[in-house]
Design goal:
The protein has 720 residues and is of the alpha/beta class. 42% of the residues lie in helices and 18% in strands. It is built from 22 helices and 25 strands. The strands form 8 sheets. Strands 7, 8, 9, 10, 11, 12 and 13 form a 7-stranded mixed beta sheet that branches. A hairpin with a 5-residue loop joins strand 18 and strand 19.
Length: 720
């Protein structure tokens, strides 16, 4: 090797381009049953590589490179997600810089701007994944809004609708008054806040007594339709079934008994506002209560409230209500109170449970098979404890709200006639045919303006990316996929939905194993956040230490069920590991190590037999560990063997042999050294691909090379 030191910045880009030019990652389409496939969790098209991406994709890359070395036909399916809300926000922000405002644009004009942005800036995370070394089949890159995936989305929506599993209904959903759309539970952040608890007296109808309720949201009392107490609460047993008078409105509402009420919280009596609280809504359903919506899309009070409140924002209305309650002498007391408040993670606005017309999927019916396939082991979670999380959510699953009030996304394939009759079809022509049959004449239709939840299209990802609903050759070969590597935070929102959709439409589980990795935290174990100033940028670490040092660090710390406490010093430590190997290779070159076809079973020297034994132990440990997703055990076995045993001990022993006059020992030692070094580089390749590929070329004369590129080599066989 001519270079004195290894310089990752000078070689990584060239090596990756060389891999791409040779088509090293393209999935073979030849007929074979020896296949391995993974679909990438599609990063948002708005995204930049963060440490969670770095961990997730490093682990996937280790798997696919390992199984390629083991002779399998491998598909690592890449792509990006259109990320409806996030992308609209980014593009809206960019347009404002040019004095262009979304409200002044038609839907089509705004979408054109989004596509322009996507083409110019939306694919930067793909280049960042390449920089990390991800060996995806980029020739098959997909996007959740591309033509093929759009075809699959429409097909699924229509099929589910025709099967009675998609319907439109007026229900509560998380409403973001800033973005003016429903959002999923995933997009809601529960924050602990210090607020107030107001105790309000509601008079008992026709009695000289009252019942006190405690609330953190007095503004919603204008939509109250009941007061609830626990059926076993002795304090209130005599008034269950009576009516109370709602202050301000002077309206009679029933006092009901429901086991949901906690006797030891507040006053033990709660106001029930079915239109503005998810739990209240369920109580309302159980007791057949009136549902009164008091907010508009801006979280302002609407026409269902007294005239002097209409048009007020919720917090202005709160102040006015508190003042009026004081004047009526029914505000008993106010206490400071710690409670959780839901915020939209994109907008930072307090989310409002709001009653709207939305499209829903009957997730309960779809969940039945998805639960069973995990129970019977057809799909396994690793670590197994995540199955409990999966079951808890799936067994209590609610209807899935799939409509969003956005421009960017899959526009729902439903058209309305003049009387509101809906026609669901894959395109407007088919909808028109349905309408003609219904109305007995040509009728003008209007398409649904809502788009589908981003998770709807990504739920189809394992098979839609392979050409489904067409029965393509790539689908036949690589679906179901072998494994899924993901974070625990999207078990509900992505993993579960892929299971439901995969089973319903392909009759097979989409993956046989789900490896759930932990979080990457800072060195103190704190979650990384911009507000804390403790975010570690993987791109900056790669600039300083190279991609391989970061990959080795993440792999060595990826113990099952344990969060990673990452520090810059750890990455620096693994850069030193690469330097150790680099210097070892130079030592081997200096001593002209070669391999000339030696039979390892006939080795005589005690040191050489010892290192072969240690090497075989490392090889077996590494192979088992990767297959069992024990990435830290694989990295640590390789680290210990390479640094401590091979470099620090064995190469030191060889100096004694090289200084001896025993030519047979010297020749055998050079053979064994070359054998060990070559195979160790192959075993290290899935974890540190750039460094090993560079050495494979630079140190070629001293290595056993069955192929020109190390990524085309074979995983070492057991030593005899």
């Amino acid at each position: 090797m001519q270079e004195k030191y290894y310089s990752p910045n000078s070689v990584e880009e060239k090596i990756y381009k060389d891999w791409e030019d040779q088509g090293a990652f393209i999935a073979p389409e030849r007929a074979s049953s020896n296949n391995y496939s993974i679909v990438i969790p599609p990063p948002n098209v708005t995204g930049n590589l963060h440490m969670g991406h770095a961990l997730n994709n490093t682990l996937q890359d280790i798997l696919v490179r390992f199984y390629r070395l083991n002779g399998k036909d491998v598909l690592w399916q890449p792509g990006t997600d259109h990320a409806g809300i996030a992308t609209e926000m980014v593009v809206e922000r960019e347009l404002k810089k040019k004095k262009i405002f979304k409200k002044d644009l038609s839907r089509e004009e705004f979408i054109n701007h989004v596509w322009e942005w996507k083409e110019q800036s939306g694919n930067q995370i793909i280049n960042q994944l390449k920089r990390l070394g991800c060996s995806c089949d980029w020739s098959r890159e997909r996007f959740t809004l591309d033509e093929g995936l759009s075809k699959a989305v429409k097909y699924v929506f229509v099929q589910l609708y025709n099967d009675g599993l998609i319907y439109k209904d007026k229900r509560l959903s998380n409403w973001d008054p800033k973005l003016k759309t429903t959002i999923s539970d995933l997009e809601v952040v529960q924050k602990e806040v210090t607020g107030s608890l107001w105790y309000i007296k509601y008079a008992i109808e026709n009695e000289d007594s009252s019942i006190v309720i405690a609330t953190t949201r007095p503004e919603t009392m204008l939509g109250d339709t009941a007061i609830a107490v626990h059926p076993e609460d002795e304090r209130y047993r005599d008034i269950i079934g009576k009516n109370a008078i709602l202050p301000i409105l002077n309206k009679s509402i029933p006092i009901i008994a429901d086991e949901y009420v906690k006797m030891d919280q507040g006053s033990g009596a709660v106001k029930i506002t079915p239109a503005h609280d998810f739990n209240d809504y369920e109580i309302g359903v159980r007791h057949n209560l009136e549902v009164i919506n008091i907010f508009n899309e801006n979280a302002e009070l609407n026409e269902n409230t007294p005239p002097n409140y209409q048009g007020l924002g919720r917090y202005d209305a709160r102040e006015m209500i508190i003042k009026e309650l004081e004047e009526l002498n029914v505000l008993e007391k106010t206490e400071e109170n710690e409670h959780t408040v839901p915020y939209g993670d994109r907008s930072g606005e307090v989310v409002e449970p709001w009653l709207t017309d939305q499209w829903f999927v009957d997730a309960k019916k779809l969940s039945i098979d998805a639960i069973q396939k995990v129970r019977d082991g057809t799909t396994k979670f690793i670590p197994k404890n995540w199955e409990k999380t999966y079951f808890e959510w799936m067994e209590n699953i609610q209807p899935w709200c799939v409509s969003r009030q956005l421009n960017w996304g899959h526009q729902i394939p439903a058209w309305y006639g003049p009387d509101g009759k809906v026609f669901v079809a894959t395109d407007e022509q088919k909808a028109a045919e349905l309408a003609k049959k219904y109305y007995q004449k040509e009728t003008e239709l209007t398409q649904e303006s809502d788009v589908l939840d981003t998770w709807f299209s990504s739920a189809l990802w394992p098979f839609s990316t392979m050409g489904w609903p067409d029965r393509t050759e790539i689908l036949k070969k690589y679906y179901p996929t072998s494994a899924l590597v993901t974070g625990f935070d999207i078990i509900f929102f992505w993993v579960a939905r892929m299971m439901m959709m995969g089973l319903y439409f392909t009759k097979e589980v989409p993956f046989s194993e789900v490896y759930v990795h932990a979080l990457v935290r800072d060195e103190k174990g704190q979650k990384m956040s911009k507000s804390k100033g403790n975010v570690i940028d993987p791109l900056l670490l790669m600039d300083e230490y190279g991609a391989d040092s970061l990959r080795m660090t993440l792999c060595s710390m990826a113990a099952q069920g344990r969060d990673i406490k990452l520090s810059k010093q750890r990455v620096e430590g693994y850069r030193n590991f690469l330097t150790k190997i680099w210097n070892a290779v130079k030592f081997c070159e200096m001593n002209e190590c070669r391999f000339d076809g030696m039979d390892t079973s006939k080795v005589k020297n005690i040191f050489n037999n010892w290192i072969l034994s240690e090497y075989e132990e490392c090889r077996a440990k590494t192979e088992i560990a990767i297959k069992e997703y024990k990435f830290n055990e694989a990295a640590n076995a390789l680290y210990k063997f390479t640094w401590n045993i091979f470099c620090d001990w064995y190469l030191e022993f060889t100096k004694i042999i090289y200084q001896s006059s025993n030519s047979e020992d010297i020749k055998e030692t050079k053979n064994v050294t070359s054998f060990i070094l070559s195979n160790t580089l192959v075993m290290l390749h899935p974890i540190i691909p750039f460094f090993t590929e560079h050495l494979w070329k630079e140190a070629a004369p001293i290595l056993i090379k069955s192929s020109e590129k190390i990524n085309q080599s074979k995983w070492p066989e057991k030593v005899n």
